[in-house]
Amino acid sequence: MNNAYEIPNLRFSLPAGEDIARRRFISVNSSSEGVIATAAGSAIGVSMNQAADGEVLEIADGIVMVEAGAAITAGAGIEVGTNGKAVTNTSGIGIGIALTGAASAGNVVAVKMLNTSVTNGVDAPLVQTFVYTAADLDAGADITDDIIGVVPAGYAATVTDAQVISTGAAAGIDAENTSVVLLEVGSTKIAEVTFDADNNFPAAGVAETITLIPAAAELEAGSVLLLTVTNGATVNLPVFMVQITLTLTPAV
After folding, report:
1. What fold, for 7-121?
2. Where are the domains of the chain?
3. Contact by Cβ (8 Å): 157, 246
4. What are the tens digits of pLDDT across the range 47-99?
5. How far is residue 158 CA from its own chain's centroid?
6. CATH architecture of 127-250
7. Which of 77, 151, 169, 202 is 20 to 30 A (C-alpha) from 37?
8. What is the pTM of this model?
9. CA distance 17 to 52
10. What is the CA radius of gyration of the chain?
11. How far apart are CA 163 and CA 203, in angstroms?
C-alpha cells in the first residue's frame, strides 16, 4: 500500500529542452531548458507533466512521485537512474530518500528530495531534518522512547542541531520539578537539556537548543532517534516540537 503523497515544496516551470515523460528527474541545460537528468547526476526536481520539446514543463521538488527504474526499498537513498528514473543510490549523487518502496521497475515511488550540488560531487553532505510534534502534556506526564526518525540505508549521519520549539506557556517548572528532554539512539544519549528554575522552558514561538553530546552524534545507517521527556509532578507542558538536523553522507 502506498502511504505517501506528493507534497511539492516548490513548483515551477521551464521550457522543455526535449521530449519528457511525467515523473522523471529533471535538470537544466545551458539554454535554461528542462531536460531529463543524467544518470548518477544532480536534479532540480521531478516532471509533473508530459511535455514535448519546446512545451511548458511543470517541475516540483519536496516530496515527489518518481517512476522507479528498479526495485527500491523504503528508506533507501536515491540517485538518478537511466532516463531520469529513480534507483537506489550506489555511486552517484544522492538526491533523495525513498519514503515508499517499489517492487519493480515501472512502479511509482515517493521520494523526499534533498539539497545537493553538482559541484560537490558524491561525497557532499546532504541535510535532513526530522520534526516531532508532542501533544499537550498534563502535569507530570512523560514521553518515553517515541520515535523521531531513522538514518536511511546507505548513509551515515551526524547530528548537527537539536531544538525544542514551544507553542505555548509551560507551568509548574521549578528547582524541584524539572523537565528533561533527552534524545537517544538505543541507550546512548545524543543530546539533552534540563528545564528548571534557572533554565526556563521556551515561550510560545521560541526555540531552545538541546545540547549535543559530540562523541555520540555520529550515527550509522538504520540508527533510530528516540525522544524521552521526563517531567516532575507539577510540570505541565504545552504542545511543542522537537527539531533534529542531520547531515548525511554515503556510507563507505
Report:
1. Virus Head Decoration Protein; Chain: A, (2.40.300)
2. 7-121, 127-250
3. yes
4. 999 999 989 899 988 889 999 999 999 989 999 999 999 999 988 888 999 99
5. 13
6. Sandwich (2.60)
7. 151
8. 0.55
9. 8
10. 21
11. 13
